[in-house]
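Can you give me the bound-state structure? Components:
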Amino acid sequence: MNLRAPKGTRDVLPDEATMRRKLESIFADICARYGFGEIRTPTFEHTELFERGVGGSSDIVRKEMYTFLDKGGRSITLRPEGTAAVARTFVEQGMSSWASPVKLWYNLNMFRYERMQKGRFREHTQFGCEIFGSESPQADAELIGLLDTFFKELGIKETQLQINSIGCPVCRVDYEKALRDYFRPHLDEMCVDCVERFEKNPLRMLDCKVTKCQEIAVDAPAPLDALCEDCKKHFNAVTTYLEALEIPYCLNLRLVRGLDYYTRTVFEFVSHNVGTQGSICGGGRYDGLIAELGGGDVPGVGFALGVERLLLELQAQGLLPETDVPPLLYIASFDSTAAEALKLAQSLIRQGFSIATDVVGRSLRAQMKAADRLGVTYIVVLGDLELEKGIVDVRRLSDGEEKSCALTELGAFLKAAESAD
RNA sequence: GUGGAAUUAGCUCAGUUGGUCAGAGUGCCAGGUUGUGGCCCUGGAGGUCGUGGGUUCAAGUCCCAUAUUCCACCCCA
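Here's the bound-state model for the whole set.
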């Protein structure tokens, strides 16, 4: 077999598909209860959207995008993340004239050209939420509250919320200057990446993983101290609301996040169960994004949650959703009764029951084995004898107990059996 | 983009210093029981040993390249 799924992609088989469907349904339900509407954007966009929206200094834009020229010569990129695309829709569809704030959620697959690792794929799925049109810390808190609700409904316990504020463009300018002043004397001791970050985005020098750089960064000016009065007030209000919602959080002054559009609040839910990167969910405020994309001065805040990482987390905590249950009843038949068996199965299925029947033309013995392997609860043999009398014996496979039942009463029998469980 | 490990049947894996090494378990199909599941017994299908080169009388086995997967770095969900 030479043909394989492309590197970094996965096949989702029935058991996992069922689990994912349940997660999707829980998330959709919670979003609806919080007043969010679903949005589905195109799988690909003009490359320029991500270059401007996500930002040229981010790794996503620099080296992880699936970009190609289409037959019309347009530069197209498979979406590497959701926020820029949803923001584009906001502008294009004139959502600034909708009742404000506009609250949207999505469930979309994302594409990033990366090396494979635990919890990391070239195609992966994100659940996400965005609130456009509110500058208030109440919006930040509501989003984190929504996530907290989601995790609680799934039973997740071990994740930790980390939060930080990286300030607004105004205090960022002062802060970046302060950082450069601090790091400049140490530059020759730091890694090549940090030297590059010094020019482009000195904030990210704070969370460099190189030991030497970390040692130097320890005494760097802290982001929270550098915030302007408005940003300080905003951040304090966010944490106050989190306390009111009884959501535990952990200040992480090193938390910066690599997408260029973030302002003020940034946060992540982390866990040790999803590989060393640890992040299940990340988000923050992006007050300048809509303007950057040609819309008005509309603030925004949002998050994205990695579904594959969520599944890893649920598995580690023994919380995976149930997979499909086997059919309730297997109808065994013979050549002479195959038509009647199909008819009976269809009738019961149309009444709402889950029914299996032979579609291979197997011997009765093989059908019994097949039914057993499927894990069905009951089995009936529909032969000429049974058809003649209009009565079948319903056998319960768990203990072999048999009960006679008129063919016309089979639906009622199954209904009673179902409700008895 | 950098570094490390791995790849043999659908799945989990044996396979010694190159020489009956194409294997086991499990799963699948059938039969034993021509109209009755599980346990048991028997048989069957399924692999160009990731791919391509090289060394050799002889290569899952040694060498090189490459692909894929896993792990870590970077970064992100």
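A couple of observations. Chain A has 16 helices and 16 strands. The radius of gyration of chain A is 28 Å.
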